[in-house]
Structures are given as structure tokens and as C-alpha cells.
Amino acid sequence: MSVWVAVIATGLGCYALKLGGLVTPQRLLDDPRVRRFTELVPVALLTALIAVQALADGRTLEFDAARMAGLGAAVAALLLRAPFLVVLVVAAGVAAGLRLLGL
Amino acid sequence: MSVTETEEVGAPDEGARTSAAVRDGLGVGIAVGMSGLAFGAAAVTAGLTVAQACVLSLLAFTGASQFALAGVIGGGGGLVAGSVGAVLLGGRNALYGMRLADTLRVRGWRRLLTAHAVIDETTAVATAQHGRSAARAGFYTTAISLYLVWNGTTLLGAAGAARLGDPEAIGLDVLGPAAFLALLWPRLTAGRSEVRIALAAATIALAATPLLPPGVPVMLAAVAALPALIRRTEPA
What we know:
Shape of chain A: extended
Largest sheet of chain B: none
Number of strands of chain A: 2
Radius of gyration of chain A: 19 Å
Oligomer: heterodimer
Distance between the termini of chain B: 25 Å
Structural class of chain B: mainly alpha
Largest sheet of chain A: 2 strands, antiparallel
Number of helices of chain B: 13
Helix content of chain B: over 70%
């Protein structure tokens, strides 16, 4: 299989999954328990994504001090009710600064 | 536009909610879209051509799957297994679609187009808003800005791969998790069951990381939300 076939097959497959969720019959989702489940799924998946992006590299767990300090700075900014973009700039800035210092 | 019962008719702060949603959407679209630089560079380093990297961003438009395919190609892995793995990684977008269907309420060709944008970032922004019209504004603002920036930076990253320094040096790797954290923050500080689910999901994903192929642990973390299916209905 050429790389082109892999690229296009991956694109189509990813699109099919996105569409699949959107066209799920509403009456399946009308049950209050299913509704509550789909409400909470993004919380679970996005938190898992944060954890993996922060602490994993492929299949190995790693502790990158600069990255974790950046995320810690993001938490501090959130606790201080900083606006969204400020949170991002602070997080990236702290990580970049620490790496510049050779951490 | 129809108004749902969760939204007060003509609430004076509806305009403010919508502009907050647009601000969130632009912030995520532009900031997270910058990691297209990293993808473009990684794809070309892995052996894809510039055109292949760009077509993958245009067609797949879901970062984790794209990085996964590039990683397998770069590591000399099988293309079939690589494609299947990358598509499975996109499985969470199907769950997002189930959540967003009622918020977006799109039919026909609009639904076909909207489906392409059902991903982590748009879901995070849409579900962080109050009220359906703000959620929709957030979804589409994120979708359009992210699509433009992600594809533009993919091209830049792929074309300039040799000249581009390490994206980690400027802290690009922190932008993704920081953005998701900021968007989830209000829900994490609001409900105790949300915090429980978040902690369980993070634990499951990290524990499964050494055991399962990349991407699967995040998908598996959805089971943290399963107690909602078993328990009798709680007050929202």
C-alpha cells in the first residue's frame, strides 16, 4: 500500500467516525442516563488527553519538568481567573523560559 | 432560530455569552492551530511528502490520528496497521458527535460539512459555553479558525521542516494541554462528580499508556463516565 493510499484511507476513516456520532438516532440519546453519559464523556476524554499529553511520550511515561511547570503556571493563572489567552501565554512562556535556562 | 427551554428568551447577556464563545473559539483555533507546525515538520521528517502532509491535515483534520500515522510511517511500521490505528484514535470523535448532535441540530449537507469539525478542540469550546446559541457560536468559530490555521501551519511546518527549530523550545507542547485544561476548568470547579470522573479518567489513561498503543488509553478513559449509565438519574 502506498503512503498516498494510507493518507486518504486515514482521512476517510476519521471522517466516517465523526459523522457516525453526529447521525446517531436521537431517540437513542433521549434516555436521561445516556444523555448524562454523553454529557460526561468529553470531561473524561479531555482530562485523559491532558494527562497523556502532559506525562506520556508514545508508550513511555515521562516527567518533563519544564512542561509540568508550564501546566502548573496555567493552573495558577486559572486560579487567579486570568483570561484564556493569558493562561496559554503564561503556560508556554514558563516552559520555554525554563528550557532556555537549560532545565 | 429556535430557543430551547434551557435558554431564556432574549436574555440580556446572550450577546455577551456569544462574544465570549467567539473569543474562546478564536483563542483555541489560533493557539492550538499553531501545533500544525509541529505536525508538518514531524510528517516530513517521518518521510511523507509536503503534499501528503497537507492532504492528511485537510482530510483527517484530527491531530492525534495524524501524528499517529506519521509516527508509524517514520518508524517503518506497516501502513495498514498504521492507518487502522490512526482511525481508531479518531473513535472519540464519534462520542463527541453523540454529545454535540442535539446542540448543533444540523441536517443535510450542513451536517456533512459540520461532521468534519467534530474534534477535541471544538467539543471543548462548545461544551464550555452556557446556552445553545453560544455553544454553536463557539463550535463554528473554533472549527473555522482551527481549520485555517492548522492547514496553513501544516504547510509551513512541512515546507520548512529542515529550518524549523525544536517546537518544544518555544513551549508549543504545553499549548494543547493548557488549552484543554482552561476550557474544562469551569466544569472541574463546579461539580464533585465531574472531578471524580476527571481523576478516574486521567488515572486510567496513564495506567494504560505503557500497555496499549498510543491513542487507545484516551479512548479507554471514556469508561470513567460509565457510572452515569448505571446510576439512577441525578439532579443535573
